[in-house]
UniProtKB/TrEMBL annotation:
This is ABC transporter permease. The lineage of its organism: Bacteria, Bacillati, Chloroflexota, Chloroflexia, Chloroflexales. It is found in: Cell membrane. Belongs to the binding-protein-dependent transport system permease family. It is a multi-pass membrane protein. PROSITE patterns: ABC_TM1. InterPro entries: ABC_transporter_permease, MetI-like, MetI-like_sf. Keywords: Cell membrane, Membrane, Transmembrane, Transmembrane helix, Transport. One of its GO terms (cellular component) is plasma membrane. The chain crosses the membrane at residues 12-33, 102-126, 138-160, 172-199, 211-233, 262-285, 375-394.
Length: 406
């Protein structure tokens, strides 16, 4: 039999942990279950009411509960039900991703990156040699040339077009990843450059420059307002086109061209984000011992060798977490792109715009088209994708190594 003392301990633990467990179940687990269930239904603006005769709908949807039954909205169509087939929303999003044509297109695109991956492994081995037979720069150059040849041979443009016509999910996630890949390295390089300049002892007025370079990050708290100012710069009658007209040059519809609109969003968000990298790198640089650089100079190391062999490896523990956080922020970016382009320009009806990233797409699905079933299916697929990517990044970077070791 269980003694009273053990029961008392269990009751005490339950009383202390009970509010937290209830909060997790109510505010975390329940919304996840409701979203997953909604993703298999045809719920939208015309069918907002639940069919409470269905068991799962009556249990999960609050509108079926007696307390909220009077708050049910009035819909034009019948109550929402499970899709037929049940995976229709997922099939609509993923589209033809797993057809032979799409898989072949993915393989063709992946083939173009094989030389770069191979160059990374080769250079890792070369860096372990005292006198490498080949320069790492030559290896990267050869990999780029080979990648370009492969891209031409497999017709990567046609493969990209085939992949982009598989479904909305592929289009939106690919463009978001492309935005992250463009924005994060630019933010890092800009932050590293300014941090190296500000870390110099011979720079007069360092305090003033630190404040001025920190302004964009402070302005990011008003990102939408600041983004509207940037939008005014690139309008057809905006500042840049007026300056071009002053010199007798014709203006350009910056925000109506897919490529220029994408690059403008990257530029503006890089301007917002580089101070974060700058502050992190500057703090890491000030913790690097000066005698390490003095010993390197005595050995005849150049500035580039000191940067690549000393500075970057020593600041890596600080830069890696900042890179992960910045990548997460970039992936869920909404305010800047919504203020500048609202996800456009749209070149084809029924297709995502050139800057319609994942959060913008989800926002449009929920608040504009009110296609709740499609939006929750998109959220479920995105959760699985991000969860897998997060586990891989943690394994690759070992960012949490030692955090739970005793």
């Amino acid at each position: 039999m269980v003694s009273w003392s053990n029961r008392r301990k269990a009751l005490t633990v339950l009383l202390f942990t009970g509010p937290t467990i209830i909060g997790i179940l109510l505010f975390n687990i329940y919304p996840i279950l409701l979203s997953v269930y909604t993703s298999f239904t045809n719920r939208n603006r015309f069918r907002p009411n639940p069919d409470c005769s269905v068991f799962l709908t009556g249990v999960l949807d609050p509108l079926c509960w007696p307390q909220f039954r009077t708050s049910a909205p009035v819909g034009l169509g019948q109550p929402y039900r499970l899709q037929d087939p049940i995976y229709a929303n997922y099939a609509n999003l993923i589209g033809n991703l797993f057809t032979p044509e799409a898989l072949g297109a993915m393989a063709a695109i992946a083939l173009c990156f094989v030389p770069l991956i191979a160059a990374s492994f080769v250079n890792r081995r070369l860096n372990q040699m005292l006198e490498p037979p080949v320069s790492p720069r030559l290896v990267w150059l050869g990999a780029l040339v080979l990648g370009f040849i492969l891209a031409t041979a497999v017709n990567v443009a046609q493969a990209y077009d085939t992949l982009m016509r598989t479904g909305d999910f592929v289009v939106v996630v690919f463009r978001t990843l492309l935005f992250v890949i463009a924005r994060v390295p630019f933010s890092f390089l800009l932050g590293l450059t300014f941090a190296l300049i500000l870390n110099s002892d011979n720079l007069p007025g360092r305090t003033i420059f630190r404040v001025l370079l920190f302004v964009p990050w402070a302005a990011s708290s008003l990102a939408i307002l600041m983004a509207l100012i940037w939008q005014f710069f690139f309008r057809e009658q905006g500042t840049i086109n007026q300056v071009l007209a002053f010199f007798g040059l014709s203006g350009f519809a910056w925000l109506r061209d897919p490529v220029s609109a994408f690059l403008i969003v990257v530029l503006v968000d890089t301007w917002f984000s580089y101070p974060f990298f700058m502050i992190v790198i500057l703090g890491a640089l000030q913790s690097v011992p000066r005698d390490v650089y003095e010993a390197a100079e005595l050995d005849g190391a150049s500035w580039w060798q000191q940067l690549t062999r000393i500075t970057l490896p020593l600041i890596r523990p600080a830069v890696l977490p900042a890179t992960v956080l910045t990548s997460i922020t970039a992936f869920q970016m909404f305010g800047t792109v919504w203020a500048i382009t609202q996800g456009g320009p749209i070149n084809e009806v029924g297709r995502p715009g050139a800057t319609e990233f994942v959060i913008v797409y989800a926002y449009k699905q929920i608040f504009q088209t009110q296609n709740y079933g499609n939006a929750t299916a998109f959220a479920v697929i995105l959760f699985i994708f991000l969860f897998t990517a997060t586990l891989y990044s943690l394994r690759l970077t070992r960012i949490t190594k030692g955090a739970y070791e005793s």
